[in-house]
Design a protein that fits this description.
Layout lengths: L11 H7 L2 H9 L6 H21 L2 E6 L8 H7 E8 L2 H5 L6 E3 L14 E4 L9 H14 L4 E7 L3 H9 L7 E2 L1 H10 L2 E8 L7 E8 L10
Parallel strand pairs: 1-2, 1-4, 2-3, 4-5, 5-6
Antiparallel strand pairs: 5-8, 7-8
The protein binds S-adenosylmethionine.
The site of S-adenosylmethionine has 17 residues, from helix 1.
Length: about 220
Amino acid sequence: MPSSDRGGDGLRALRSEYESAARARHYAEERWTRTRRARRTDRREQGFVGAWLEELGPFRRALDLPCGTGRFAPLLARHAHEVVAVDAAHAMLLRHPGRSRLQASAGALPFAEASFDVVLCSRLLHHLLEPELRTAVLAEFARVCRGPLIASHFDSRSYQAWRAGIRRRDRARFAQTPASFRAEALAAGWRERDRRYVARGWSQQTWVLLEPVGERRTGGRA
Ligand SMILES: C[S@@+](CC[C@H](N)C(=O)[O-])C[C@H]1O[C@@H](n2cnc3c(N)ncnc32)[C@H](O)[C@@H]1O
C-alpha cells in the first residue's frame, strides 16, 4: 500500500486518533452493525449517496476520502470504473478491501489537477475545528476533482449539537450552520446543489451534494 503522507498540513493529530488496530477493527466489524440506530444511519447515508451517484454517474474515476475501512467501497464500485481509496491512517487502510489504496492526508493530496470525476468525503469535515483547515481541504478536493463532491458535515441546528454544547463533552467535533458551511464551500470553489439529513433536527450528521463553481467542467460521466 503506497504512502504519501507528507504531513505538515495540521491534520496529523486527527490521524493518530484512528491509527490503532483496535479502533480499525471496531470500525470494520461493529461500528455500523452493532446497534439498530447505527444500522439505520448507515442505511440512510448509503441511500442519499447512492441516489446522487445514480443521478450523476456512472463515473470513470472516484476518490473516497477518508475511506476508513471501506464502508462505501461496494456502493462506489457500482457507480465508478475505478475507485481510489485514501485515508491518513494505515490501520484503517489495512482493513479496507479495495485494491487501489493510498495513505495520504486530505490537506495535501498526491494527485494532479482534475484527476477525479467525483469525490466522496464522509465524516471528516466535522473533525476539522478551524475554518482555514476545512476550506483548505475543500479547496484540495476542488483542485483534484472536475465533477461533484459529496460530503458530510455536522449541523449546529440539531438537538445533538445543542446537547454536545450544553454538556461541553464534544470539543473534538465541530458543528456549523448550513449557511456557514455554504460560505466555506463557496470560498473553496463549490456550490451546494442538494442537502439531506440523517434525522433532521435531531442528528448532527448532514449530507451535501456540491458542484464545481466556475471554469471546471461538471459531469465526469464514464
Ligand atoms: C469517522 S471515520 C470515517 C470513515 C469513512 N469515511 C466512513 O464514513 O465510514 C474518519 C476517518 O478519517 C480519517 N482521517 C483522519 N484524518 C485524516 C486526514 N488528515 N486525511 C485523510 N483521512 C483522515 C481517519 O483515519 C478515519 O478513517
